[in-house]
Amino acid sequence: MPLKVVLRPGEKLVVNGAVLAAGERAATLFLHNQAQFLRGRDMLRPEDARCALGKLQIAIQALYLATDSQAMESRTALVAAAAAARAAHPDLVAKIDACTALAGEGAGYQAMRACAKLIAPGR
Questions:
Q1: Using 50, 70 and 90 to split pLDDT, how confident is the model at 121?
Q2: How many other β-carbons are positioned within 10 Å of the β-carbon of residue 9?
Q3: How far, in Å, CA of 2 to CA of 34, rounded?
Q4: What letters, b where the CB count within 10 A reaches 16 and e where it falls short, cover 84-119?
Q5: Residues 91-95: what's their mean pLDDT?
Q6: How many Å apart are CA 74 and CA 40, to the nearest integer?
Q7: Nearest 5°: phi and psi at 29?
Q8: What residue segments make up the domains of the chain, in order of their start?
Q9: Do 110 and 42 meet the contact criterion of CB atoms below 8 Å apart?
């Protein structure tokens, strides 16, 4: 059964590294096979990552969307971002480790959602 993705006017979608965008009207797309995708509204932009947890979120996103040739570099960035997040937020070490483990197991979308919950407004 295909996955239905609805994009708002002008919204972007990354599918397996390719950036797609809706035009002036909303767009409905159906993904019929396995793909790594992320809607613009679910992305954290690097310039919006103001804290260690935001940088961890960016690293998880990068790993989730990485091609095979980018995977090793993305894993290295994830390890560094997780270490920085642990140092900055020792009270959240278990949750940071859970996010990192999900990303390492290939559950990138779930890892991004879990990490986003850790980022308090204004961080």
A1: low
A2: 11
A3: 9
A4: bbbeebeebeebbebbbebbbeeebbbbbebbeebb
A5: 95
A6: 20
A7: -120, 150
A8: 3-42, 46-118
A9: no
Mean pLDDT over the full length of the chain: 90
What pTM value is reported for the model?
0.84
Asked if residue 76 has pLDDT above 60, the reply is yes
Hey, CA dihedral for 115, 120, 121, 123, is it positive or negative? negative
Q: How many CB atoms lie within 10 A of CB 5?
A: 16
Residue 48 exposure: Cα atoms within 13 Å on the Cβ side: 11
Q: What is the pLDDT of residues 4-40, one digit of tens each?
A: 999 999 999 998 888 899 999 999 999 898 888 888 8
